[in-house]
Each structure stands twice: as structure tokens, then as C-alpha cells.
Amino acid sequence: MNDDFYRIRRLPPYVFAEVNAMKAAARARGEDIIDLGMGNPDGAPGPHIIEKLCEVARDPGAHGYSASKGIKGLRKAQAAYYQRRFGVDLDPESEVVVTLGSKEGLANLAQAITAPGDVVLAPNPSYPIHTFGFIITGAAIRSIPAAPGPDFFKRLEYSMAYSVPKPKVLVIGYPSNPTAYTADLAFYREVVAFAKEHGLWVISDLAYAEIYYGDEPTPSILQVPGGKDVAVEFTSMSKTYSMAGWRIGFAVGNPTLIGALARVKSYLDYGAFTPIQAAAVAALNGPQDVVEQNRQLYKARRDVMVESFGRAGWDIPPPDASMFAWAPIPPALAHLGSVEFSKRLLSEAKVAVAPGAGFGSEGEGYVRLALVENEQRIRQAARGVKKFMTAHGVNVPSGQKD
Q1: Chain Cα centroid distance, residue 395
Q2: Which of 371, 374, 375 is nearest to 323 (CA)?
Q3: How far is 305 from 180, CA to CA, in rounded Å?
Q4: Which 3-state string (H, E, C) describes 234-254?
Q5: What pLDDT, on a 0 to 100 scale, did the predictor assign at position 304?
Q6: How many other CB atoms sit within 10 Å of the CB of residue 263?
Q7: Angle at 327 between CA 322 and CA 328, to 5 degrees
Q8: Cβ count near 384 (within 10 Å)
Q9: Which candidate among 52, 54, 177, 267 keeps its CA 20 to 30 Å from the CA of 130?
């Protein structure tokens, strides 16, 4: 029997698997592991959201198949969100699709618009689905810088000039996972102009739109005039409303791309459970104080992490957005590489982080830390880090208290 499966062959060994196995084994032994590795929110949605879920779930007629592209009320709610947040008009019928989280949506859009041999431009490092969603379909990936600076467009020009065949799709995502880079409207204007000039489709991942720490809200590429001509954008309820396990996201924008995604999804799923979609409507249309509360929660955790880890001898650059910090391995331990460093940090400091190599070759030398533990646990993690650093000969600032 032939077990040489084409798409499985295209997937390398999962970089996070070894660290995750160690974490599970440590917990099975009863060890207290502070998990800063997975971006899994530790909060709960607002009470009115949960109540709406329960209310609709009590309806005997709510338990059948739902709508693959999402119930109309939820598509209208997402369109209303884009109008009040970004000033962008969306047609709920042709420019909005509800997805089973943004990850599923990205993967299914890749299935819909790419074929074996197509070339896709994707950032390195980046969230794995940005590349592997297309690799699974048989596409070839050309890496571009994750940072939205001058080198970004230089690499785009180079890729368009020297790739055969010409790239078909450009993937971007700001605030980014794992690097927490952000982009402004001027950057998006350049992206839209470049895409139009070169005939590129643009996929923008805006999952962390509401988790920003400066005074300026995160923009959308669809705010750029003509943005909908070339771009589709993904958002998620996961972090904004602490609804990660509910698996509700959205794709919005260019009607051609939205139509392709909707058609593929119609063959693959019947949409999320209707009570979950109804609860998502309540989240989008209801009180938004939970959004600001989550933003302030992650900001406070960020500040505690930067301060306490710094005193422990590990300088963490403060992220401007997202629920992650992207931290270089301390120079004295850089020779270990991100996977070995993560393994030793887990076994010796009892702190789990995500090795940067899992996000692409350019992620080597870094680890990602998620702001998913409370402030007390973050300080506890810092104490473990301090002991770890001292044991490995890293100079810890003198006169610092735990």
C-alpha cells in the first residue's frame, strides 16, 4: 500500500513538537510549568456573549446545519465593525465570509486560489499558516522580510524580477505574529500600488487589530483607496474577545477572492455552530468595553515581563502590539539555537517559550513569549529565568531584587 502522500511529504517535522512533548512530560511529573509558548488567551468572553450562546443553544431549532459562509446577521455585524472601526464599506453578501478561525480561512483560501507551481511571497519569520497553507497546495514560497521597511519593497522588486513563474500572491500580517511588527497606512498604500502594478493578490492577516499599545489604532489595508481591488483581509474573534476555542474569524474584501473562498468552503463545511455565530453577533454589536479591557490587560503584562525579565538578565524588546514579545536569545547563550535554548529554559527554569526557528529560518536566534499568564506568574517566570541565567554564567544586573 502506497503511503507516500504528496502533501505530507511537503511538511517538515514540526519544530515545536519536541518542546511540546517535554512540556507535557514535565506536567505529567507534577512540575509547575509557566507556559509562555502558546498564544492561548487565559480569559473568558463577556457574560452577555456567553448568555447569548446559551440562549440560542436552548432553541431546539438551532442545532441543525448552519450556513457555510456564515449566518447573515454575523456577516452584517462584521461589515458594521469595519465601517465604525476603519470607515470601510463592505457588502455582507459578496465581501464577507465567516471562517472557522482565521487559520482555517487562510488555508482554504490558499486551496482556492493557488495551484502546484504557483509562487507566493510570504514573510519570514511569520505565523506558519502563512507559508504552509500554500506549501500544502503545492505552491513555492519566496521569502520577504517581515519588517515593513525599505528592505521589504526591495525584496518584492527582486522577487518579481527573478521568480519564474511570476509571483501570484503576497501575504502580509500586521501586527505580526511572531515579531509584533506594525504597519501604517503609508506602507499599505505602497503595497496596494505595488500589487496593482504587478498583478498580485494580497492577503492581509489582521488577527491582532485590537491589541495595540500606542495612541494610534492599527489600520487596515482596505482603508487604502483601491485596496479592495487587490486585497482580502482576515480577522479573528480569538484574541479581541477571548474566544479562541470558539473558532470564529472572518475574511473580508475583494469579492473575487471572497467568492473563491466561499465556494471552496461550501464543499468542506457547514459553518460554525449557529449558537456560536449568534454569540459572535452579540460580541460585535454589544458593549465593547471588553476590547479595551483586554488591550490594557496585555499591555500591563507586557510591561511586567519587560521589567522583570530585564532585571533577571534577559532584555525583552517591548512589543508595540499583539499579545507576543519577540525576544533575541541572550548573546551568551545564542550558540544554543532557539530550539535547544527553549528546551533548556523549560527543563531548568520551568518556563515554556516558542522557538523562533518554528516561524521560519529568519526566526533562528529568537524565541516568542506569549502574554497569557497573569502578572504574578510572569514574575515567577522571571525568577526562574534569573536562576537559569546565573547558572549559565550570564551577568545578571547587580543589586536587583526578585
Answers
A1: 34
A2: 371
A3: 15
A4: EEECCCCCCCHHHCCEEEEEC
A5: 98
A6: 13
A7: 150
A8: 18
A9: 267
Answer whether residue 106 shows pLDDT above 60. yes
139: which 3 cell numbers? 505552491
Read off φ and ψ for residue 184, nearest 5 degrees: -110, 175
User: What would the grid cell of residue 204 be?
Assistant: 492581509
Helix (H, G, I), strand (E, B) or coil at 153: helix
Separation of alpha carbons 302 and 237, rounded Å: 21
- What pairs with residue 273 in β-bridges? none
Q: Which triple of cell numbers denotes residue 104?
A: 482555517
Q: Please report the DSSP string for 165-227 in residue order.
A: S---EEEEESS-TTT-----HHHHHHHHHHHHHHT-EEEEE-TTTT-B-SSSPPP-GGGSTTH
Question: d(Cα 389, Cα 401) in Å, to the nearest integer?
Answer: 15
Q: Which helix (H) or strand (E) holds 98?
A: strand 96-99
Report d(CA 15, CA 47) in Å as an integer. Answer: 37
- Give residue for cell 496585555: 298
- Among candidate residues 335, 343, 372, the one with its CA nearest the CA of residue 17: 343
Q: Does residue 125 contact residue 179 with C-beta atoms inside 8 Å?
A: yes
- For cell 470564529, name the residue: 248
Contact 183, 202 (CB under 8 A): no
Instruction: Report the b/e string of 94-119 with b at 16+ CB within 10 A.
Output: ebbbbbbbbbbbbbbbbbbbbeeebb
pTM of the model: 0.93
C-alpha cell, 343: 528546551
C-beta of residue 221 within 8 angstroms of C-beta of residue 204: yes
Any residues with CB less than 8 A from the CB of 226 and at least 6 apart, and which? 192, 196
Does 400 have pLDDT greater than 60?
Answer: no
Which residue spans within 36-149 are E strands per DSSP?
96-99, 119-124, 140-145
C-alpha cell at 16: 515545536
Q: 140 exposed, middle or buried (CB, 10 Å; 0-12, 13-18, 19+)?
A: middle
Residue 396: the pLDDT is 72
- Segment 167-221, tens digit of pLDDT: 999 999 999 999 999 999 999 999 999 999 999 999 999 999 999 999 999 999 9
Whole-angstrom Cα distance, residue 248 to residue 259?
19
Contact 156, 149 (CB under 8 A): no
Assign 4 a pLDDT band (cuts: 50, 70, 90). confident
